[in-house]
Amino acid sequence: MSSPAVLRLSDVKKGFAAPEGGRVDVLDVERLELAAGEQVALRGSSGAGKTTLLHIVAGIVKPDSGVVEVAGSDIAQLSEAARDRWRAKHIGYIYQSFHLLQGFSALENVALAMKFGGAVDLARAKELLEQVGLGSRLDYKPRQLSIGQQQRVAVARALANQPQLVLADEPTGNLDREHADAALELILSLCRSSGAALLLVSHDERVVARFSRVIDLTALNRRAAAGARA
Amino acid sequence: MSSRSSASGFGLWMLARRSLRQHAFSTAITSASLALACGLVMAVLGIRAQSESAFLLENSPYDAVLGVRSSATQLVLNSVFHLETSPGNLPWREYEAVRSAPGVRAAVPFAVGDSWKGFRIVGTTTAQFDDVALRGRAPRVARGGRVFDEELREAVLGSFVADKTGARVGDTIHPAHGPLEGGHDHDEDYVVVGVLEPTNTPADRVVWIPIEGMFRMEGHVLRGDGEEYHAEHDEEIPEDKKEVSAVLLAFEAPQVGMQLEQRYNREGKEATLAWPVSRVVLELFDKIGWMSRVLELVAYATVLVAAASILASLYDAMAQRRRELAILRAIGATRTELFASVVLQASAIAATGALLGCGVYFAILFVVRAVIRAQTGVVLDPFEIDAAVALTPLGVIALGALCGVLPAWKAYSVEVAEDLAPTT
């Protein structure tokens, strides 16, 4: 990797309280790095901790220990409110279920992300939606859009604050093959053109095959590996 | 917000407003119930404050009422507010005696018992209109009219009487026996010679005629000396036969009232001096004060119920909105911002209710004003806002905001990782 790392994880551990009492360790990653602008696929078996890893990188969940350095900041050391703001400014997040705000138009969904990222730039929000082919659907509410169009709004929202890192959690999981291919192509090309690194979770081999670097979390996660050996 | 909206429109208020719009029906119902409750509290407080102020008749020229031995309240109600029936009559000599008492600036005799179209007729003297003796507070006759001649069958109408009956100067009125509409008509006709300017007091609901006319009205019996006497045409009425229902008094100084109270209330047995009039009215308000306090409590209870409905509707909405709140957190909203947004929603509902409540207040006040004016002649001013009335909407907004705290806490406690399932 010649570019400086936009993401650097070292000795990150995370566990949760089990309903029956005690604690369940779900993640133990010794080292993971992404270079600026790099596009990486993350795969792993179900329950391997892929979403937990993305949540930790996004600052949604705080690790129990370890360093989570994103764009030069160790976000594990930030307060929750600071992580929220930091996430809005530096991370774009694309969910499998899109997670658009139903009461807001496509434009407002993008603009609200900008609001929490620091400043609303409606011209740029419109430009982003035009880039994803929704220039004529700015005022449409999510329920007035097709599934594929909703995913494109989610992509535009993820890029709203010009993030250095985009996280995508099964972004094509809810789409048919044709739309999945188009959505993936859109994500890859927009991240490439904006210079954002991409960490994309998928269990779809067709999707994973599009990446030159693929990380298998089942192997990377020492906790999962230990579980497998046991 | 459309694609033409400005960037400054995005913020907590937008989130709050959009959420209210998404739950427009419950927002409208909650705001409406709060408006009714707020308006009710404002009306109860306003009517009480204004009634106390208006019924004290602070600009009344009279300090006291002298009447036959009875309760001071009954005397004041009958003579000042022209309500209730007269408790009885005083011999004319009592009027003469009090008129000539030292320190009595004005003594105005009233004789009642007749009516015209349901409005009370009061027989009196022109002293009732003596602006000098009554310290510039005597009722004034409107332009184009004059005070009646004590020797003639002439009448002066209160402004409310003129408004309601349409009678004007030059018209003839026909008194009926008894205080209510429906009594038998007397034979005499009276010519209207003047209409009083509005005083916003019970005087506006009275037809004023010369007291001599009351004495001589067909069918009237005088018992000034205990014997029945019917006045005859062209025959002077002996002084000892005359009687009055009450005498309204204005004093040079408060000490005069004290002296006369001693004379009539403590040493005498025939008459009662209601003095000072304002104290008698206050005592009356004290007696019926429990009613106003009960109304006040009921009004407060409705506010609490309405405020609780804010809490309930927002709390339920939070349960439905967990995913939406989690999305907001995921795109960068802090817990504090979500908390503030929900409190803002509650405050907005309460503010809408408070604003509409002001409308409800004015609606109630205008109706009550019309009723009180029709019943008593006293006029309330809905725009004379008491401090407690003015503070009520602010209190309602504060209460609404407080009711938003629990739902806001629910929003605050949303966990992104838990509410944005599924996981991989």
Task: Summarize the structure in words.
The complex is a heterodimer of chains A (230) and B (424). Chain A has a single domain (5-229), classed as 3-Layer(aba) Sandwich (Rossmann fold), CATH 3.40.50. Chain A is built from nine helices and nine strands. Chain A has helices at residues 50-58, 80-90, 106-117, 122-131, 147-158, 177-194, 205-208, 217-220, 222-229; strands at residues 5-17, 23-35, 39-43, 65-70, 73-74, 91-94, 165-169, 197-201, 213-216. In chain A, the strands form two sheets. A five-stranded parallel β-sheet of chain A has the order 6-7-8-3-9, with helices on both faces. Chain A has a four-stranded antiparallel β-sheet with strand order 2-1-4-5. In chain A, α4 (122-131) packs across α5. Chain B has 424 residues and is of the alpha+beta class. Chain B has 13 helices and twelve strands. Chain B has helices spanning 12-22, 24-55, 72-79, 92-99, 159-165, 211-216, 254-267, 277-320, 322-330, 335-376, 387-403, 405-412, 416-419, and strands at 64-68, 90-91, 104-116, 119-124, 154-157, 172-173, 176-177, 190-195, 206-210, 243-244, 246-251, 271-274. In chain B, strands 1, 3, 4, 5, 6, 7, 8, 9, 11 and 12 form a ten-stranded mixed β-sheet that branches. A two-stranded antiparallel sheet of chain B has the order 2-10. In chain B, α8 packs antiparallel against α10. The A-B interface holds A 46, 50-52, 55, 58, 60-61, 80-81, 84-85, 87-89, 93, 95-97, 99-105, 107-108, 111-117, 119-122, 126, 138-139, 157, 169-170, 201, 203 and B 1-3, 5-8, 10-11, 18-19, 21-22, 323-324, 326-336, 416-417, 420, 422-424.
What are the key terms here?
heterodimer; A: 230 residues; Rossmann fold; five-stranded parallel beta sheet; B: 424 residues; alpha+beta; elongated; disordered N terminus
